[in-house]
Structures are given as C-alpha cells and as structure tokens.
Amino acid sequence: MLLPICKFGTPVLREKGAPVTVFDDALARLATDMLDTMRAAKGIGLAAQQIGRALQFFVIDIPDGKPGTPLSFAFTLDGREVPREVVMPLAVANPEVEILPDDEWLESEGCLSFPGLNGRVARREKVRMGYQDVSGARHEIICDGLFARCIQHEFDHCQGVLFIDRMEKPDLLKIQTKIKQLKRETAASLRAFGKA
Prior knowledge:
- With 196 residues, this protein is an alpha+beta fold.
- 32% of the residues lie in helices and 24% in strands.
- The chain is built from five helices and eight strands.
- Strands 1-2-4-7-8-3 form a six-stranded antiparallel β-sheet, sandwiched between helices. A two-stranded antiparallel sheet has the order 5-6.
C-alpha cells in the first residue's frame, strides 16, 4: 500500500523517533509499505517520520551499481561479505550509527520530503551501524559509499534532523525561496485537512 509522504513543514519531520519495541506482522507490513512508497517516489531511502510516524525505523533499497560508479559501495553484514541481495532491501529498527574516521565526501543529496530540491552535503565515507531487523534480530553493517551516505541521511531523519540542516551554505541559499514556499504549501495543506 502506498503511503502519503510528509513534506517539509510537517511537524513530525522534526520529531526524534521512539524506539521500536514490537516486532510483529504490523512492523513487517509497515516496512513493505514504506519500500513500495519509496520506490514509487523513485527514492533509495525512507524514514518513518516521512510517512508520519515518529519511530526509529527506516528502509533502504539501492539498486545494483558497477564498481566505480555512483551506486557502488562495499559492505559487510555481521562481519562477513555477502551478496548485495542478502541486504537489499533493508529495513532498520533502532539504528545505532557510528561514523568511522574516514574522509568526508561532499555530494549532492535530495530528499523525498523536499521534492525537486537538492544540495551538497558533507558526509563521512564509512559508517558502522548496529540495528534490529523486522523480527527483532540484531545485526551490524559496516559500509562505505552511497550506502553509508544513505544510512546517515535516514538516521538523521530518525533524530528529527533534515538534510537542509547539514547542507552547504551556498547551496542552501540557492534553494531558500523554494524551501519557504514548500513550507507555506505544507502548512496550508495541513490547515485544510485540520491537522495544523
């Protein structure tokens, strides 16, 4: 089932998510619905805040990329190298992210809550993430490249932090008018539906 994506200006986007405590069919269904919603919007990650739920929960699905291309990345799951299809698509509950001391990587990012808006964000090249899957089992991923960037972006969402908060100042200034317009449109829409 496709879910509505919250646009910038929706208060839940600024809320820190509560821990996931129940691992049941409803959580697995939520992950499936979020993945369907994300793919329909042509995204590679989606956090629970973006569909109106303040939870420590997100999904990622990065399509296959050849080595050396923007979609390429390396990773281990629970200390082992495994095929990409073992990990993707990924549903993450209660993430604990450690930014590893690696190079910073400045790259353009977008966000499904800011349709059509992009800007450069500096992220670390490599991360370690402990998390639980939809059945509650604990895992650890160490990854780099686009996978690491996507984890950092979605983890930020779970803390109520948005990519515009980390965006390079010149890039943010270029889209500031559009951001304000989006916020006004969202506020008007929330008022119209009695949710403001």
